[in-house]
Design goal:
The chain is mainly α. The protein contains 5 helices and no strands.
């Protein structure tokens, strides 16, 4: 389910979203919605507000989260952009894409570490040796 909203954006923000949409062959509204969805969990008031509490998940789901990996396509693109960034400068669109993919990676790692801690708490995994 989605809701249509009308926003007033600064010209430069809209232009960046439009450029990214053109570069990735996506609609500008979709780019903006995805950017908002990616950034929302990073707000200090609610870092994981849209995710179910780990305590409510089944053992199977906790273990699946503890073992999760970044989507292969996203991971490959992240590697490409990081490599290119070391060799040459990235375009503005590529920098935005890299930052977005890094955000996805970091949020995934956070969720994975929380799931690992929950798995240890439940006795599903042994704690790491110190």
């Amino acid at each position: 389910m989605s809701v249509q909203v009308t926003l007033s954006l600064p010209n430069n923000l809209f232009e960046h979203a439009r450029d990214l949409g053109n570069a990735t062959k996506r609609d500008t509204a979709e780019v903006l919605a995805d950017a908002l969805a990616m950034m929302w969990p990073t707000l200090p008031e609610s870092p994981t507000a849209n995710l179910p509490a780990l305590a409510t998940l089944s053992d199977e789901d906790v273990l699946a989260l503890a073992d999760m990996k970044m989507d292969e396509t996203q991971n490959n693109r992240l590697s490409e952009l990081q490599s290119k960034g070391k060799q040459a400068s990235l375009t503005e669109v590529e920098r935005f894409e890299l930052l977005s993919l890094l955000q996805i990676y970091q949020l995934g790692q956070l969720r994975k570490s929380e799931a690992l801690a929950e798995a240890v708490r439940r006795g599903l995994r042994k704690p790491l040796a110190s």
